[in-house]
């Protein structure tokens, strides 16, 4: 088993263009930001740049690992650095309250007029899905099912409808 422990994560440094994407009902994160992370195990420091693309999934597009002269970076050290955990920790630290942001900087929050119950449910499912994806949830459809109290089959129909409505990107 690999030992891995994060000591601390610095506040996120938003990068241009400074826009945000929702990660929860009341929270958002910058679509592009840099975070510095100190690791307790292995003894190293990491800087990552995170970018959230059109599919609403945050991804690391730059990763820098620094170590001390006494403990150089080796293949063994690299294997200990768990990139997915770094990303989740950085996203959590980058979250800010939506009400603290300027109007128009939070993407994908414009209301879409619902023409019926199916459209309304698809809109709700799309919002929950986007928030789950942005927060790093590996099973966003399950988050929708859990949140809405619906079956996976029904949620699949909502998500398909949301894609047809342009609320979610096509696969």
Structural overview:
By secondary structure, the chain is an alpha+beta fold. The protein has two domains: 5-100, no CATH class; 111-164. It is built from five helices and nine strands, in the order βββββββααββααα. The strands form two sheets. Strands 1, 2, 5, 6 and 7 form a five-stranded antiparallel β-sheet that branches. Strands 8-4-3-9 form a four-stranded mixed β-sheet. Helix 3 crosses helix 4 (140-148) and helix 4 crosses helix 5 (152-164).
Beta strand %: 25-35%
Helix content: 25-40%
What is the number of domains? 2
How many extended strands? 9
What is the rounded Rg?
A: 18 Å
Shape: elongated
Task: Give me the oligomer status.
Answer: single chain
Low-confidence stretches: none
The succession of helices and strands, N to C, reads: EEEEEEEHHEEHHH
**Mean pLDDT, nearest integer?**
87
Derived from helix and strand composition plus strand pairing, the structural class reads: alpha+beta
Distance between the termini: 35 Å
Q: What count of helical segments does DSSP give?
A: 5
What can be said about the biggest beta sheet?
5 strands, antiparallel
Structure keywords:
single chain, 171 residues, alpha+beta, five-stranded antiparallel beta sheet, four-stranded mixed beta sheet, 5 helices, 9 strands, 34% helix, elongated
